[in-house]
Amino acid sequence: MALREVRLVPDSVLRKTAKPVKEMTPRLQTLVKDMFNTMDSEDGIGLAGPQVGILKRIFTVGIGDIRLCFVNPEILETRGEYLDVEGCLSIPGETGVVKRPEYVKVKAMNEKNEEFVIEAKNLLARCILHELDHLDGVLFTDKLVEVDEDFEPEEQSEELLVSLTYTEKE
């Protein structure tokens, strides 16, 4: 397993729309392993295909014990909203406040070609939505919100994973 080079702004690949994955091949499974390794080595909590120069609708998330790969993700539902500080491995040293839903329900496949539906809250929801944006060429800096200098993020509950259900493909 290798480390991939994280593409940095202003690399044009970060502004392109990723293409759907037609099938999970051994090569894409290796990519997923490399993305987890790269994300971990960079102390990130998410990494999208375009960030390593691969224009495929695929991203990884790793927060605590939660480690998931999302292939061809589709948002089913969002609820609520809150402001928090975000950063990005592709924009080192820069952070800003972004408003995002506090809950998201997403359908995707994993690297084993298993379909799942996940319901996430707070930081996990934020991370999933941030990585989903990368698949459409959107960066967190496009969504910055003006806040007072003394802005403090709202306290969020520790609950991140509401449910994770593997489903039979139709």
From TrEMBL:
Any one Gene Ontology BP term: translation
InterPro entries cross-referenced by the UniProt entry: Peptide_deformylase, Peptide_deformylase_sf
Keywords: Hydrolase, Iron, Metal-binding, Protein biosynthesis
Entry annotation: catalytic residues: 131
Source organism (scientific name): Proteiniclasticum aestuarii
UniProt xrefs under Pfam families: Pep_deformylase (PF01327)
Cofactor requirements of the protein: Fe(2+)
Top class in the EC scheme: hydrolase
UniProt record similarity statement: Belongs to the polypeptide deformylase family.
GO MF entries: metal ion binding; peptide deformylase activity
Protein's name according to its UniProt entry: Peptide deformylase
Summary of the function given for this chain in its UniProt record: Removes the formyl group from the N-terminal Met of newly synthesized proteins. Requires at least a dipeptide for an efficient rate of reaction. N-terminal L-methionine is a prerequisite for activity but the enzyme has broad specificity at other positions.
EC number of the protein: 3.5.1.88
Keyword check for Metal-binding: yes
Binding sites annotated in the UniProt record for Fe cation: 88, 130, 134
Cofactor info, note text: Binds 1 Fe(2+) ion.
HAMAP family linked to this entry: Pep_deformylase
NCBIfam families: pept_deformyl (TIGR00079), PRK00150.1-3 (NF001159)
Keyword Signal carried by entry: no
Superkingdom per UniProt: Bacteria
